[in-house]
Structures are given as structure tokens and as C-alpha cells.
Structure to design on (209 residues):
């Protein structure tokens, strides 16, 4: 079997094992069994299970983000971004990608070697969200008051949190999304007001910031 094929099999098997069995069920043996290869190949190609997980999360995030890149690029308003977020949430929940990230977040609390893997995977999503937020807020009265990078990170953290929250309270997760949509509606309403109102809003925000 070509080296590239073996590495890909291990990367995909690591993700599937993480999704199906959680961080506690991940081992060289379970990953190798899922990949249909000898478990020694885990260490030959990646050195350790932690390094394999790091590579697998990056690999999985890159693949999933590639599916959404054009949709992120097409977003022009905050409401459109929230609509995409809702669709992405449903699709990724079904795929199990965010669940895998959540498992690594949980594992990283006790195994610091997993923290870089989680950060790498999340940062790939954060970059896409940050670009979209920067674009849709550029002409907003809020633009000069918003830390777009920080907001993108908060959005990614909330996304993972909603993934976990929906598992125990689906209605509560929907309510959270509805609240965000209401906030987007307020921002849109402010953007639609005349220049005098927008200037007044900016002046008031400056006094409070």
C-alpha cells in the first residue's frame, strides 16, 4: 500500500474513532483496527497517538472548510452569516466534525499534548469566520468598536458549545440561535437608518467605550 494511502487511512480512522468512541476510546489499536492496518504503522507514520490526532484534526478541518469556503465568501450581511452558521451547525453535527473537536477540547483539559491539535483545528474555522465578519461589519456603525479577531474566536467557541448544548437541550440551542438572529436584526436596523442616526450611535458608543 502506498505511504500516502496508509497515512490517509490512519488520519480518517483517527477521526472516525474519535467521533464514535470519544477521546477515552482512542488508542493505537482502535485506530489501526478502524484503518485496517497494523498498529505499528501509527508510530511509524506519526510517532505517537497524540501526533496522529493533531494531524487528523487538521486534515478533517481542512476538508470540511473547503466545502464551505465559497459559501463563506458569498456572505454579505450579518444575517446571512448567521443563516450559514445555522446550516453549518446542522451539517457538521450530522458529520460529527465539531463533536470530534469537542472531544479534543475535553481531552486537552488533562492532556496538554492535545491542546495544540485542538487549537490548530479551531483556528482554521476561526480564519474563515474572521474574514466573513470583517467583511460584513466593515460598513457597520459598530466596525470601529468591534474586535473582529476576538469576535471570531468567541463565535467559534460558541459554536462548539452549542454543539454540546444541543445534545442535552435542543430547544435551548435553538433559542440561543434565535437570540443571535434577533441581535443581527438590531444591527441591520441600525445600518438601515440614516447617516444622522448612525453618527449619533457612533458618538454614543465612543462615550461608553
Amino acid at each position: 500500500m502506498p505511504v500516502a494511502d496508509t497515512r490517509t487511512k490512519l488520519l480518517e480512522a483517527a477521526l472516525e474513532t474519535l467521533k464514535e468512541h470519544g477521546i477515552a476510546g482512542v488508542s493505537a489499536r482502535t485506530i489501526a483496527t478502524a484503518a485496517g492496518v497494523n498498529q505499528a504503522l501509527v508510530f511509524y507514520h506519526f510517532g505517537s497517538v497524540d501526533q496522529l490526532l493533531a494531524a487528523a484534526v487538521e486534515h478533517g478541518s481542512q476538508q470540511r472548510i473547503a466545502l464551505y469556503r465559497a459559501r463563506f465568501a458569498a456572505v454579505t450581511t450579518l444575517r446571512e452569516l448567521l443563516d450559514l452558521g445555522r446550516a453549518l451547525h446542522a451539517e457538521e453535527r450530522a458529520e460529527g466534525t465539531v463533536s470530534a473537536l469537542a472531544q479534543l477540547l475535553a481531552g486537552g483539559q488533562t492532556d496538554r499534548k492535545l491542546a495544540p491539535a485542538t487549537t490548530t483545528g479551531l483556528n482554521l474555522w476561526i480564519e474563515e469566520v474572521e474574514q466573513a465578519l470583517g467583511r460584513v461589519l466593515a460598513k457597520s456603525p459598530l466596525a470601529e468598536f468591534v474586535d473582529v479577531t476576538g469576535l471570531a474566536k468567541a463565535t467559534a467557541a460558541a459554536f462548539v458549545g452549542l454543539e454540546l448544548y444541543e445534545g442535552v437541550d435542543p430547544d435551548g440551542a435553538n433559542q440561543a440561535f434565535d437570540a443571535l438572529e434577533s441581535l443581527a436584526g438590531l444591527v441591520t436596523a441600525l445600518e438601515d437608518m440614516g447617516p444622522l442616526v448612525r453618527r449619533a450611535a457612533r458618538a454614543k458608543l465612543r462615550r461608553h467605550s
About this structure: The chain has a mean pLDDT of 82. The radius of gyration is 20 Å. The CA atoms of residues 58 and 121 lie 5 Å apart.
